[in-house]
Amino acid sequence: MLLAALQAPGAMAQSAAGDAPSQPVLLAAGSLRAAMGELLAAYRAGGGAAFSAVYGPSGKLRKDIEGGRAVDVFASASSEHTAALARQGLLGEPAVFTHNALCVVSRPELKLRSENLLGELGKPTLRLATSTPGSDPMGDYTWQFFRKADGRQPGLYAILDAKALKLSGTAELAPDSTLPYVTAFEQDKADAYVMYCTNAVLTKQAVPRLEILRIPDALNVRSSYGIAARSGSAEGERLLGFVLGPAGQAILRQHGFH
């Protein structure tokens, strides 16, 4: 587990006794939880070390690393975060390792289609849930979608920006916890939710009656996921190579990343 105390930048996490290193640490975007769980299992089966994995909003995790949080590998939903940490010398050379896109998950009675999507989302009665921009790249990408939508329907950005219910993207995900997107529908907090298409699949698996609509390409935002290891972390570099290699990439594709 991660230590409560902050470590000096670039330092290895130490055990509570301070006399031996703890497990290597992976910090990763919440949208990667299922895929990374399988990746880490495959990595360990091939002789790699067991990692202590923590999932949460990439923007928050970046700030934690800048504040001294111990990390061996950081997998972010935005390549900008890994690049920024590399420039500060807190991580080694970053790489883009996969991509995602935006979908809208909605209640079936809305009958969302590409041709009516913007009109329906802009209706005052529709409760539109999103992640939190600034803290979570999924929120940042959603607001980019809002701006593209405004190009089609001037004034729509202001409507969507004002009505969006930021129901995720501020806290780390507890192990085996229910995804906040699922909770939003189970607790009747939203009618539609803009999220990564990979998260949309998981949400529909949990609540089968929901419908998924991929946002049309002209309005969609292709997200670039970045990954980097801490300089000097042999196990971090080894995991990085596995994720970027054929076996790691195949697992990511199986989970809907591309």
From TrEMBL:
InterPro entries: ModA/WtpA
Record-linked SUPFAM superfamilies: Periplasmic binding protein-like II
Pfam families: SBP_bac_11
Protein origin, superkingdom: Bacteria
Protein name: ABC transporter substrate-binding protein
Native source organism of the sequence: Massilia varians
